[in-house]
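Q: Fold this one first, please.
A: Sequence and structure below.
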Amino acid sequence: MKPRCRIALTLLVAALSSSSFATAQTYPAQYGSGQAVLNIQQATLRQPGQKTPELSTEELRKILAERSATVFDARPFNEYAVSHIPGALNVSAKPGVPISLYVSDVAEIGRLVQDNKAAPIVLYCNGPFCSKSKRLAKELLAAGYTNVRRYQLGIPTWRALVGTTQIEREGIRYVLDRDRTAVVFDARSPEEFEAGSLPGARHLVLADVGKAKDDGRLPMEDHNTRIIVVGRDGAQARAVADAIARNAFHNVAFYAGTFESLK
């Protein structure tokens, strides 16, 4: 073996046997070797220099299920209304701030948590490159709040890993007026649908989601399509929205109110 090749081989073996590489390649115990590793639901960005801790998707889902913290969407209301994490709240903007430096009003948050500075608060916005939740976290800390965390992966990762978001009535109106590519599904019974629905809505009950992939109701050639589901109530709409999202559509929102409230 030539000396140059021998040196290259030695360096390669050293790299493969290094502790950092071994750690990166370890697998859960059930696979036979190494230590357990985090799955994608447990991941965070781990950005350095942040004064508020991050939450993983798994942690946020648990918080929402247990209602153990108040979750705030740190984006402007129009963005929140069109698509937000189910259960999240939104407040108005801090007065006098340009849109490029948008930040929510801490005073409004204070009213919602009854000025409890120890109240557990979770913030999120538009993902890793969005600074809105960081700006709001900074303002909350300055105001004396002591239990502030961020889901910095934000709504894009929520859509990718969980699938379903929630839309408000104002968001439905905005989409119907401006997005001609959006698809609206009515999950109520055939009789209720025939009696009247939203403009351009398609009928789709939970049992027919599979059929809709082949009969033209679901946009199978564009899984980026914005999809909205309404129903008799929020539970019916969410069940259909979840089923659609599990078929690899990643811009699906359900309306949590009753169909009657849309009239």
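Q: Good. Now the second chain.
A: Here it is, same layout.
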Amino acid sequence: MATALAPNSGAARNYFADRLVAGKLDLRHTRTEILQLNVGKVCNLVCNHCHVNAGPARKEIMTRETLDRVIDWLARTDILTVDITGGAPEMIPDFRYLVERVKALRPTRHLIDRCNLTILVEPGYEGLAEFLAERDVEIIASLPCYTPRNVNEQRGEGVFEESIRALRLLNKLGYGINPSLPLHLVYNPNGAFLPGPQAELEADYKKELKENFGVTFNRLYTITNMPIARFAAYLRHNQKYDEYVELLVNSFNPQTVDGLMCRNTLNVGWRGEVYDCDFNQMLDLQWTNARPLYLWDIDPAAVEGRAIVTGDHCFGCTAGCGSSCGGALVA
């Protein structure tokens, strides 16, 4: 059964919600453990699988005023992990300011930078890798394959070579080697199919990258491509959209629901609006239809127990072994 991946609305049936009801599954927010900040859509790459439609021409960035309001809200909480994403988050003018302010609140707070690797070796970003290492910022880096052909096909010519340069720089600084500097890689399928088994892919990545390029890392996360934004356009261009959606729907795995990232994560957009996840943000699935709801307007203690806003795109996170910002959800 192929369905249109439409957000919740009075006019569109939510097949994912129907599946939850049929399985007697209740998807609600638990205790907030991660604050994920999508600080903008500007990026130095234009990747086929991007759910943000990010690129060099985008202008959306989180301003310092918005950053300050988000950090003031964070200071009232005991949330220990801040996950910074984009776009290429490092390209916003106040990226280093953001890192410094979060660390100043509580030095033990865990910071994650979701990095495309190539930005670390771009002109004008010299010293960025060293800056991250000095502040013990975890790096989760996108590398959709360990061969040049697949990466360049998905992300642009020359991207693989620049990614290897960046990985070697990170290894030199201790990333992937020093326990305080974790370096994890992300695999995205290069087409209309689900990721393979995460453990097997991780073993392949470690072998190939070490033997061919002298690169080491900690973990590999497999993430399913979401059929929205640029990847949806890619699927339609190749006449595979309906086929891929049907694959996601038919691969629904109820065992993934308890581990979904929306249960313990709050996602914040570049203007400060709050969402259940980055995909909901890109589809503008607000918590309320009345007006935008900003992070600083919610009580941190009042979020626990609220129902997650869903849509049929949620089949992407629950298909097969599941998919989250931390990779597969079940073995």
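Q: Anything worth noting on the second one?
A: The domain at 15-318 is CATH 3.20.20.70 (TIM Barrel).
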